[in-house]
Design goal:
Layout lengths: L5 E4 L4 E5 L5 E6 L2 E5 L4 H14 L3 E6 L5 H4 L10 E4 L1 H9 L6 E3 L3 E6 L2 E6 L11 E4 L4 E5 L18 H13 L4 E4 L8 H22 L4 H7 L17 H11 L2
Parallel strand pairs: 4-5, 5-6, 6-7, 11-12
Antiparallel strand pairs: 1-2, 2-3, 3-4, 8-9, 9-10, 10-11
Helix pairs in contact: 4-5, 5-7, 6-7
Bound molecules: zinc ion.
């Protein structure tokens, strides 16, 4: 799932490369290409070769959705890139690991016009980590969500990197406010809005039920036992790397 790269063409200027680490989007304009997330290891080189040899373009701008290795680890394969758009917190995490690039920080939003088309790179909130960005193509109603959203695979929070499930709920709600019909999740297949709506509902019910249990004085263990969210069997546990119980326990700790 993570390692086989699958290509999806979205018109002549846009393609999505699913897998090989996190999903990537390639948008070509003139002789240049704008790429979101650069995969990891040799998949980064394959991504670059595809842009250079198949599309005949040069990667000039990269946007990193966050600092995780499977999304940003491939920067080594793009030494000539003019600009790497990144959230300040993600930049700090990368630089702490010795990663060097021509970083440009996006704390809230930057609007690019590439080949006449508007691309908004923005932080509507974080939650998967403490430094998440998305790319929004309003003219196409297309969103590149990074690991803030995982389609039907269910939400994924990384506690050690500043992830916060209560913030993820707020961020998911804000993503829903965007006029979006097609979404590139961090991993897995392209989706429409349906799993985003379901994920938001799941996170809200999670918060409400955990708040209710906490309000009644239940312990974390009792809450984890009692809050099952059985109505969300259509949402996965992020490839078995996450679980409902972990989410309940995270929310328990996150709520006042
Ligand atoms: Zn991640």
């Amino acid at each position: 799932m993570f390692l086989n790269v699958k290509r999806v063409e979205l018109g002549d200027r846009l393609r999505v490369l699913l897998g090989g680490g996190g999903n990537s989007l390639v948008f070509v304009h003139g002789q240049d290409a704008f790429v979101t997330d650069v995969k990891m290891g040799d998949y980064a080189l394959k991504l670059r070769r595809e842009v250079e040899e198949e599309l005949g373009r040069t990667v000039q701008r990269v946007m990193l959705t966050h600092a995780h290795f499977d999304h940003a680890g491939g920067l080594w394969a793009f030494p000539g890139v003019a600009v790497v758009l990144v959230h300040p917190t993600a930049r700090a995490r990368l630089e702490a690991k010795g990663v060097k690039a021509r970083f440009v920080e996006v704390e809230r939003e930057v609007e690019l016009v590439l080949g006449g088309e508007t691309v908004r790179v923005l932080n509507v909130g974080s939650g998967h980590t403490d430094g998440d960005l998305v790319a929004y193509f309003p003219g196409r109603k297309l969103l590149v969500a990074g690991d803030l959203f995982q389609g039907w695979h269910g939400p994924h929070v990384v506690d050690g990197d500043g992830g916060d499930i209560a913030r993820l709920e707020e961020t998911t709600r804000r993503l829903l406010e965007l006029d979006v019909e097609r979404i590139v999740p961090g991993h897995g297949e392209l989706t429409d809005r349906a799993p985003l709506i379901r994920t938001a509902a799941y996170l809200t019910e999670l918060r409400e039920r955990v708040a209710d249990a906490k309000g009644k004085g239940l312990s974390e263990d009792e809450t984890a036992k009692g809050v099952q969210l059985e109505g969300y069997a259509d949402l996965g546990d992020f490839f078995g790397l996450d679980s409902r119980e972990k989410n309940v326990r995270r929310m328990y700790k996150a709520l006042p």
